[in-house]
Amino acid sequence: MIRTPVSSLKVAWRKDRVLDSAIERDKRLDLCLRVVREVLLEPRRCIPLRYLEKRRDRLRLPFRLPTFLSRYPLFFDSYPDRIRPNQPPVPFLRPSPRLNLFLHRESQIRSDNEALTLAKLCKLLMISKHKVISAEKLLNVKRDFGFGDDFLVRLVPKHPHLLRLTGNPGEGKSFLELVSWNEDFAKSAIEKRAEEESELTGIKMRPNFSVKLPKGFYLRKEMREWVRDWLELPYVSPYADASGLSQASPEMEKRTVGVLHEMLSMSVLRRMAVPVMGKFCEEFRFSNAFGNAFTRHSGIFYVSLKGGIKTAVLREAYDGEGVLVDRDPLMEIRDQFTELMDEGHKEWKERVRLKREAVQRELEMVAKRNAETCEHDVDDDENEVEKL
């Protein structure tokens, strides 16, 4: 039996370099996505170069925009245009043919995975206390779950039997409501895994969390015993009614960890910023100290501090090299964008290499001419001496 209160349990945070490296690897990709998204959100999908340059701080761009365009040349085309009719032309940016091709493929991938996106939306609403979530909050996490920019106006109206949007998105007073409960969506990732294992082994498996402490990480005896007893408690589904659970009880802790696990399992990268997850405290019945659950359960989650923000990572989704192995189908969008980014970056590096080689050849030719000139001068001096 668990007697130690949840609030009294303390676990020291420990750096996991492998999972930190997974976040660090996406740093360049996230930078490119921010810049591309900024242009695509413009009314005509074009913008004066100098306007975009002024947004460097907001885009967290560590170098000037021309440098970015040089390093990643396949995203945009530059062309002259006038900001106002009576002004001289200035450089504008618009999506390149390669970027437009990617956008077409992205649209197709989203269309192919519409059922998955619908299921994620319904699941979030089914977990929530009143089966309703602010549209503004859902818009804030659209990239985390892969919803797409227009999911409220494109996807929701197509499924009136499941979802209903009230109010006007963008005004901060609109909400997405669950119209009907779908039992097919009311199974968590952990429950599905237990069912799959039961089918494979022929033995009924109890739903539970996968716990794997990182190498070199040890828990104090008191904490080990608490985790052991806590794991023996019955699994509390995120979709079960939690109104009767005490906020400080081990059962509520089980439910909170289950909800956090389910959120991360639905996210595209199997990781999310802790402050973003915290925006759902009221809807998902989290306590104000919900973030401590990530460190209390270090065998299930990891909290990275990379980039100056706390990011919760689902350990089981990554292998020992920090590679995402539990891949969301919408990861295909990031994969194709990465290919476009890497291809352009490779072209830039090749241009830099050829330029360096040309400069080196020029320096060698200059040095050779100087050497020949010196040798010629020496010969002239020797001839003069002989004449004397």
UniProtKB/TrEMBL annotation:
<dbReference type="GO" id="GO:0003723">
    <property type="term" value="F:RNA binding"/>
</dbReference>
<dbReference type="InterPro" id="IPR045040">
    <property type="entry name" value="PORR_fam"/>
</dbReference>
<protein>
    <submittedName>
        <fullName>Protein ROOT PRIMORDIUM DEFECTIVE 1</fullName>
    </submittedName>
</protein>
<feature type="domain" description="PORR">
    <location>
        <begin position="15"/>
        <end position="345"/>
    </location>
</feature>
<dbReference type="Pfam" id="PF11955">
    <property type="entry name" value="PORR"/>
</dbReference>
<dbReference type="InterPro" id="IPR021099">
    <property type="entry name" value="PORR_domain"/>
</dbReference>
